[in-house]
Amino acid sequence: MTNYEIWQSVLADFELKVSKPNFTTWFKHTGIAKYDTGQVVICVPNAFTKSWLENKYHKDIIATIEKVTGKPIKKIEYRVESMKNIEEQECTLSTIPTVSTPETPIHSSPKFSPGAQFGLNIKYTFDTFIVGKGNELAHAAAQAVADRPGEAYNPLFIYGGVGLGKTHLLQAIGHEMLTRNPSTRILYVSSEKFTNEFVSSVKSGKAKEFKDRYRNVDLLLIDDIQFIGGKEQTQEEFFHTFNELHQQGKQVVMSSDRPPKAIPALEDRLRSRFEWGMIADIANPDLETRLAILESKSQEKQFPLEPDILNAIATTVQSNIRELEGALNKIIAYHQLKNIAPTKESIKSVLASFEQQGTRKAVTPRETVNTVAEFFDVAIDDILGKSREKRLAFPRQIVMYLLREELKMSYPAIGTELGGRDHTTAMHAHTKIRTELENDLKLKQDLANIKQRLYSDAA
Hints:
This is Chromosomal replication initiator protein DnaA. By secondary structure, the protein is α/β, with parallel strands linked by helices. It is built from 19 helices and eight strands.
């Protein structure tokens, strides 16, 4: 087999393993530059792809090449180099036939989706969800629920900031369950709609119809559940709805902008039930994930961009996926209107408004640890250590709070950063500090001073 033929077979295998956006993003314009006595050189288009393949797909690539060739692989090197510079036949996604038949553009969708009758957006599927460090736990939990509804995690509670993909995951579960069983009964609503329909049913004397609608389903998806806080009658009705579905083994999935413990005026009995299954958070996407999202979206919109342009956007817009896509749409519209090709210079004016949204210097997790350790006059190793002494535990909790609030890190990432702790420890620390801040003026002042030091040092 030629190098071209080997890599063609490898790509065909990966196309069946990974989602189409991930396949397009990370395997496009890649190929084998050299294959000799168990040593392989794979050329990739840029450093981001190189890093991602090394960290995420390295073992799978080795296993797949070994399966295709029937020979052991001793070493794989990833090299940033265009396939056009390789004497072998050009090996890009556009020239390599794959196992799909025939290929359709990534943006096209079937005219009818079974999920449409349940209010599910046809674009919100697992195939179109880009997985990164900040959302991999929530994504894995959502897939587990779709695989074993009512068994794996019931309820599944997903929370995170605005525009990070919570609704996408909720609806992806619905689409997946419908694909596997078209007779699945699904109800997808916001908590506001649940409240409005409940109030309307009481006023119109149609309480039984309301109960039948919400309790005779296989999957209940509730978006923005935090808004039932403080609504006593709505909470009472949802409590009984939840119990009925849970006792029947039906799946409940909820999204929120905060964990159950932080939802104000939420009854304890509901809070405890929300915590029965799995609580998974979604953090702001890291640079690699933002690049993957931009690559996927630009392909979807049939407006592919060069890696340096994607990098400029991803570096500037760091808040959430919604703003990231907004920046991309703005750049596409501007250049289509001007009928010019995007360059690093031409996108500067478009990205200027996004740059103004955050002028503070970026800080690292280690800088945060150092600043807090210095403020409380404790050793860095003690913060990273296992001691539970109050004089050490409290600064450690402050670090966890800041990593979550300022750096937007996921709880698993915070736990890893602080000595390999469990993500629930980070979650508890964040909730504890946020609750104490409501009434503790000294803590507020201390945090303000720490942040002032942190950002002035980073500058």
